[in-house]
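Q: My labmate handed me this sequence with no annotations at all. I'd like to see what the chain might look like in three dimensions before we decide whether it's worth expressing. Could you predict it?
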Amino acid sequence: MTDTYQILLSISIIIQIILFIAFIVLIFKLSGYVKKLIGKTDELKEDINSFKLRLDPLIDDTLDLVKKLNTISGKVEENIDTIKKVTDRVKDITEDIYEFKNRLQKKIEPPINDTINFYTAIIKGIKVFTEKLKNSHGKLPADNLLFDDKFDYDVEIKEEYNDINKELNEVRKKLEEMKRV
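A: Here is what I predict for the chain of 181 residues:
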């Protein structure tokens, strides 16, 4: 048994040496991989740092842009509110002007219409008077004439009638202009 024991012990030592050598080789290989991994990690770290250097200004510019956009949108909202207020004011003023026009028209139209009717009545009265005067003028005896025969009353009355017509036409024109307003 000693021989077998010796052989087994020798085999065991050889296996241990082989395993120890394999372990040492494995450690060297692993340390090489670890060095490569550390190198790759350092490269990755440098890439990340350079990316960060490029990304920082981009982030700052983006934040500035967002601030500017917020400022612009705030100003746009203020301007829209101002435009709404101005539009409402213009609408109110327009309504007030329209109401004022209607009130003024209601107050002015009756007196103007009364004035026109008055002038029309005067003109009609003058026409009737002149017609009666013409008709009765021929029927009066020559010694009972109210007016002098030498004077042409028709011409004078026609001139007065024309003057009154002109004035009435001016009043009508003014009334039409006021109605347009």
